[in-house]
Design a protein that fits this description.
The structure is a single chain. By secondary structure, the protein is mainly alpha-helical. It has five helices and four strands. The strands form two sheets. Strands 1-4 form a two-stranded parallel sheet. Strands 2-3 form a two-stranded antiparallel sheet. Strand 2 and strand 3 form a beta hairpin. The longest helix has 13 residues.
Length: 98
């Protein structure tokens, strides 16, 4: 997701904004979370269970890692973070900012 965010910032705000984001990761302002092999397996199940949506692999691995770490809030412009539901009977949704 870091790479996707960097490209989005570069496209919308320019290279200097993207570089400031990258620098912020070194300060602890931005938390970087690695994707595990179990996250990849979970992401594949998400792809299977949600065939009607064009979730990217970045989206699906993000959903999986967020579920694993119990992260309930996302800063995202991607509408898929508002669509995706998880938990029993798919009743839970991420709180999306903005």
């Amino acid at each position: 997701m870091v790479v996707e965010t960097w490209f989005l910032l570069k496209a919308r705000l320019g290279r200097s904004a993207a570089m400031r984001f990258w620098d912020a990761m070194g300060t602890g302002l931005v938390r970087v979370i690695g994707v595990s092999s179990s996250d990849l397996a979970r992401a594949r199940r998400i792809a299977r269970d949600w065939p009607e949506h064009a979730f990217s692999i970045v989206d699906m691995t993000s959903f999986a890692a967020m579920e694993r770490l119990r992260i309930e809030e996302a800063f995202a412009f991607d509408r898929h973070f508002r669509v995706y539901r998880y938990g029993s009977s798919r009743r839970r949704a991420f709180r999306v900012i903005p």
